[in-house]
Amino acid sequence: MHGYANPARFVRIARPATAWLLGVGALLALAGSLAGLFVTPPDYLQGETVRILYIHVPAAWLGMAGWAAIAAAAISQLVWRHPLAAIAGRALAPVGATFAALCLATGSIWGRPTWGTWWEWDGRLTSMLILLFLYLGYIALASAERERGGEGRMAALFGLVGAVNLPIIHYSVLWWRTLHQGQSISLSGGSSIAPELLWPLPLTMIGFSALFAAATLMRMRGELARLKVEARLRRSAQS
Amino acid sequence: MNSWSFVFAAYAVTAIATIGLLGWAWVSMRRAEHAAKAAEHQR
Q1: What are the two backbone dihedrals, phi and then psi, of residue A208, each rounded to the nearest 5 degrees?
Q2: pLDDT in tens, A111-150
């Protein structure tokens, strides 16, 4: 991992990776969304609103994966003092927050015609809302630490502690059997969704994940460039 | 309201947020990289 700690080497790899991720991500997300909108049949129970699944599920996955990545960056920063870890954490937070907010918004839009309500204080919905608030707290804390010239250790600790919410979100549908339905797809490959409805979902999952990675890389490259300018200004002020 | 209205609303929100996020990340990265390049040339 420390092989990529050199910012110049990281940028050399990140530059083509950003373009590839943007291209592949846009293509797959668009193809999956169009297939989900116009090609798949309506669900026998939910009707046309099932089409919201193709964007809601990737948003939920990326909202949670974003925080898992923040926690991994925090461990890397606190244990191995990886120089890019704090930058990665700061870059990930607004991207993850956007997808957590999208998960809540698309879920709410799906809930109105399906459940008859925009919002319910259900275990899954509430724990996802807490995740969004955690993101906002992390962004505020990391920005404040950066302004003061700190290393971002408080934000890293916050990122680690906040990861406690991830299993709560995952198991909320089992612990509190309220409004949100149980798990339909598992990582081991099982699915209770009909194959003719399921096939566009991997396209949007991979597509939006690639766009998430592209946005994170662009934010990291921007942050590295800003740090370079600040370091140069400091040096010229000292001499 | 027709169920298609909810479907299109969800897709519109997602498209706007995703394009907005990528556009913001792109513009702020380009600005920072231009500033870094300009600072390098001033040396």
Answers
A1: -70, -30
A2: 999 999 999 999 999 999 999 999 999 999 999 998 888 8
Tell me what ipTM this predicted complex has.
0.94
Whose CA is closest to A132, among A104, A174, A151? A104
Residue A68 lies in a domain: yes
- CA A53, CA A96: separation in Å to the nearest integer? 19
**A172 is a domain residue:** yes
Joined tokens for residue B28: 């702020």
Total beta-carbon pairs less than 8 A apart between chain A and chain B: 94
Domain extent, residue A93, equals 24-38+49-182+197-238
Please give the tally of structural domains in chain B: 1
**Six token digits for residue A170:** 């995952």
* Closest Cα in chain A, distance from residue B42 (Å): 10
Model confidence over A26-69: pLDDT tens digits? Answer: 999 999 999 999 999 988 888 899 999 999 999 999 999 999 99
Q: Is A47 helix (H, G, I), strand (E, B) or coil?
A: strand
Kindly list the residues of chain A whose beta carbon comes within 8 Å of any beta carbon in chain B.
22, 29, 33, 37, 47-49, 51-52, 55-56, 59, 94-95, 98, 101-102, 105-106, 109-110, 112-113, 208, 211, 214-215, 218-219, 221-223, 225-226, 228-229, 232-233
Quote the tokens at residue A110.
């799906």
**Position A1 pLDDT exceeds 60:** no
Please count the structural domains in chain A: 1
In which domain, by residue range, is B19 found?
1-43
Give residue A147's Cα distance to chain centre: 24
Question: Taking CB atoms and an 8 Å limit, are A110 and B21 in contact across chains?
Answer: no
